[in-house]
Design brief:
Elements lengths: L1 H9 L3 E3 L11 E3 L1 H20 L4 E3 L8 H7 L1 H4 L1 E6 L6 E3 L5 E2 L2 E2 L13 E4 L2 E4 L9 E4 L4 H6 L1 H8 L5 E10 L14 E11 L4 H18 L7 E5 L11 E9 L2 E10 L3 H10 L5 E3 L4 E3 L2 E8 H12 E7 L5 E7 L10 E5 L5 H15 L4 E3 L5 H11 L3 E5 L14 E6 L5 E5 L3 H9 L1
Parallel strand pairs: 3-11, 21-22, 21-23
Antiparallel strand pairs: 1-2, 4-5, 4-8, 6-7, 9-10, 11-12, 12-18, 13-14, 14-15, 15-18, 16-17, 19-20, 23-24, 24-25
The structure holds glycyl-adenosine-5'-phosphate (GAP).
The site of glycyl-adenosine-5'-phosphate (GAP) has 19 residues, from strand 12, strand 15, strand 18 and helix 9.
Length: 444
């Protein structure tokens, strides 16, 4: 993890939030490469879940919502972790994560056994809307995006005219005042979620739970997480929420252990029923075939952008020993990100920076590709160094404009370039005109 955290900072994937003021625990900023990686991840999720399907539409709900939403959903009364305080060092700790010694819970910070009784600590961030700060103006920063989907169910149904089963998808920020934010961006206080609420008839729920498990595993494979690093954990009935008839966690082998990456829950009709009850507004569905009204059931695949990004970085990070042409060995750090996810798709390098013709040609290649993908132009340093810099950034292809390109070694290779593969370091020659199609095929 230390190596990944250090690479993330060094190359501009992730910075500590408000770093120059000492940071803010559980909050992170995403730098130039991080922001591109997240965008690729979110775009691909949206493409898979919404654009490529007829049965799912999108929503972008507000972060602040009427307080009653959280009363109805149960978050105001039950969205909490058990917490204890250490009377010795004053640390606030998650009661369910404490180490034990001789059967007694111990403070992991100072080793004291002098701990308070567990108390429920609500994870929602509270704020006030408007000028007065009293009970009537309390609002929460949403701890999940899902509730906006439930409360807008009728509006979306009416405008989209979808028939069951159909889904509503959303990507957006969520906030949880986690007691122990930890493991870098794995558990943060501010993070982003990608959630789908897939509404269905009651008899379809369990079958759709299996369907979405398979779909989501396929998604993770398609962004470069191999099946051997993914595990499916079926949550036993006694650990599930009382309304859930089935829940799977898709887990990933992070360097700090096998941990939840995504949850897929069959939540029955709990959410819509609650909001119908609390709001007094109908949230039912009229089935044309049976001419009857029902509250749809829902299957919910829900994943954090930040957590999926961390899984991608962990899976991609590699170090290998390579030997250069002079026989010197060195360690090559390479991020083997799937080309679809890679922040920069291709580096473009003129072999020499002080040759006008090489530079001009390389800049033409950049301009040709720029409209379609993120490209990085680099003319400084030895070509081997430039390749290494892109290896670390996860750039899957390097294009070098050399003397063959400008016809100095005869007409045969004029207007061709060297394409170098990041993973194998193999090189091949391609006509410049064929480069866009070649790259398109790899990155879409
Ligand atoms: N609406 C369902 C829901 O909120 P959850 O299991 O609490 O379910 C879903 O969260 C996903 O959101 C998790 O599997 C994880 O990927 C991500 N997530 C949850 N809490 C997080 C946190 N504090 N930091 C980063 N990601 C988090």
């Amino acid at each position: 993890m230390e190596k990944i955290v250090s690479l993330c900072k060094r190359r501009g994937f992730v910075f500590q939030s408000s770093e120059i003021y000492g940071g803010l625990n559980g909050c992170w900023d995403y730098g130039p490469l991080g922001v591109e990686l997240r965008r690729n991840l979110k775009d691909f999720w949206w493409r898979r879940m919404v654009r490529e399907r007829d049965d799912i539409v999108g929503l972008d709900g507000s972060i602040l919502m009427n307080r009653q939403v959280w009363v109805a959903s149960g978050h105001e009364s039950t969205f909490s972790d058990p917490m204890v305080d250490c009377r010795n060092c004053k640390s606030r700790l998650r009661a369910d994560q404490l180490p034990e010694k001789n059967g007694q819970k111990q403070c992991p910070v100072c080793g004291s056994f002098d701990l308070t009784e567990p108390r429920a600590f609500n994870l929602m961030f509270k704020t006030f809307v408007g000028a007065t700060e009293d009970d009537s103006s309390i609002a929460y920063l949403r701890p999940e995006t899902a509730q906006a989907i439930f409360v807008q169910f009728r509006n979306v149904l009416e405008v989209s005219r979808k028939k069951l089963p159909f889904g509503i998808a959303q990507i957006g920020k969520a906030f949880r005042n986690e007691i122990n934010p930890r493991n870098f961006i794995f558990r943060s206080r501010e993070f982003e979620m990608m959630e789908l609420e897939y509404f269905c008839f009651p008899h379809q729920g369990l079958e759709l739970l299996e369907y979405w498990l398979k779909e989501r595993l396929r998604f993770f494979n398609d962004i470069g997480l191999s099946s051997d690093k993914l595990h499916v954990h079926s949550i036993p009935a006694e650990e599930r929420a009382h309304y859930s008839q089935g829940t799977y966690d898709i887990e990933f082998e992070f360097p700090f252990g096998i941990q939840e990456l995504e949850g897929i829950a069959y939540r029955t009709d709990f959410d819509l029923s609650q909001h119908q009850k609390f709001s007094g507004k109908p949230l039912d569905y009229f089935d044309e075939e049976t001419k009857s009204h029902l509250i749809p059931h829902v299957v919910e695949p829900s994943v954090g952008v930040d957590r999926a990004m961390l899984a991608l970085l962990c899976a991609a990070y590699d170090e290998e020993t390579v030997t250069d042409e002079k026989g010197k060995s060195e360690t090559r750090t390479v991020l083997r990100l799937h080309p679809r996810m890679a922040p920069i798709k291709c580096g473009v390098f003129p072999l020499l920076k002080n040759n006008e013709e090489l530079v001009k040609k390389a800049k033409e290649v950049v301009e040709m590709l720029r409209g379609e993908m993120s490209v990085f132009y680099d003319e400084t340093g030895a070509i081997g160094r430039r390749y290494r810099r892109q290896d670390e950034a996860g750039t899957p292809f390097g294009i070098t404009v050399d003397f063959d390109t400008i016809g100095e070694n005869g007409p045969a290779n004029r207007d061709t370039v060297t394409v170098r593969y990041r993973d194998s370091m193999e090189q091949k020659r391609l006509a410049i005109a064929d480069i866009p199609a070649f790259l398109r095929e790899q990155i879409t």
